[in-house]
């Protein structure tokens, strides 16, 4: 492996960046993170990156706008410091749910973020489980969309002794694709939870499938408040599920 490789951690998840660096036999680059008195983000390189292939690791988490702005600033700093190539490692891509216009009043913010990263100087994007696969077409630079299912399956095999007695559950329509992939990989049955709205505005969770006495593995594509997963777990428990496990992208 080339030693001319540099790993720079953002403020979002320095522990993850340190783990990646350790696995590769590196230490994260020495940098300065902070804020000016007026709240603007401050970033400085404390070592040279001239001629290096730089990997900037920064995910999307609270406060999302600060994390995104810090990422853009880190990338531009590396570009001005004569980095050879800059790869942005963004496990959870910001604003990825805003990938289409449901009406003329709405923006396509995912495309805007993709453009901002290109303008800042990113040469390559590495992300995971984009909200919609077509988002890769928003980039004018290479974008690798990794799948978490590759690591999820070994985890299930290792930590769920009775996973063979399981059922994969999609708690919302948007999770059907990823739940189907997991079901096919594990060779398990599948169930769905359908939200049925009544005229009086009451919402009822309708379970489609048999989960009685089964280990239920609930797969969602995105988690904000966890309300959907909590309601799904309650409904599955009522239906006789012996154990419920949740998985999803958490911003």
What features would you describe in this structure?
- The chain folds into two domains: 142 residues, Rossmann fold, CATH 3.40.50; 99 residues, Rossmann fold (3-Layer(aba) Sandwich), CATH 3.40.50.2020.
- It is 29% helix and 25% strand.
Number of strands: 12
Number of helices: 6
Average pLDDT: 87
Structural class: alpha/beta
Radius of gyration (Å): 21 Å
- Total tally of structural domains: 2
CATH architecture term of the largest domain: 3-Layer(aba) Sandwich
CATH topology of the largest domain: Rossmann fold
What's the end-to-end separation, in Å? 32 Å
Could you describe the largest sheet, including whether it forms a barrel? 5 strands, parallel
Give the CATH class of the largest domain.
Alpha Beta
Read across the widest sheet, the strand sequence of neighbours is 1-4-5-6-7
The level of helicity is 25-40%
Strand content: 25-35%
What spatial form do the alpha-carbon principal axes imply? globular
Q: Poorly predicted ranges (pLDDT <50, ≥5 residues)?
A: none
The secondary-structure element order is EHEEEHEHEEHEHEEEHE
């Amino acid at each position: 492996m080339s030693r001319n490789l540099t790993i720079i951690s953002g403020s979002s998840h320095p522990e993850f960046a340190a783990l990646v660096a350790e696995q590769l036999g590196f230490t994260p680059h020495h940098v300065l993170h902070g804020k000016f008195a007026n709240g603007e983000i401050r970033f400085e390189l404390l070592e040279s990156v001239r001629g290096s292939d730089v990997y900037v690791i920064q995910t999307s988490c609270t406060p999302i706008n600060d994390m995104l702005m810090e990422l853009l600033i880190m990338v531009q700093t590396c570009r001005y410091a004569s980095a050879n190539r800059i790869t942005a490692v963004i496990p959870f891509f910001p604003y990825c749910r805003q990938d289409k216009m449901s009406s003329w009043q709405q923006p396509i913010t995912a495309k805007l973020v993709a453009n901002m990263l290109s303008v800042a100087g990113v040469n390559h994007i590495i992300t995971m489980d984009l909200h919609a696969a077509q988002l890769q077409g928003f980039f004018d630079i290479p974008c690798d969309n990794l799948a978490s299912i590759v690591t999820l399956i070994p985890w299930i095999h290792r930590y769920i002794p009775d996973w063979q007695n399981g059922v994969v559950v999609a708690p919302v329509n948007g999770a059907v694709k990823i739940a189907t992939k997991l079901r096919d990989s594990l060779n398990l049955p599948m169930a769905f939870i359908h939200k049925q709205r009544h005229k009086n505005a009451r919402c009822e969770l309708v379970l489609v499938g048999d989960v009685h006495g089964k280990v239920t593995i609930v797969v969602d594509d995105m988690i904000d408040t966890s309300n959907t997963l909590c309601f799904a777990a309650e409904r599955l428990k009522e239906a006789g599920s012996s154990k419920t496990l949740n998985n999803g992208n958490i911003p």
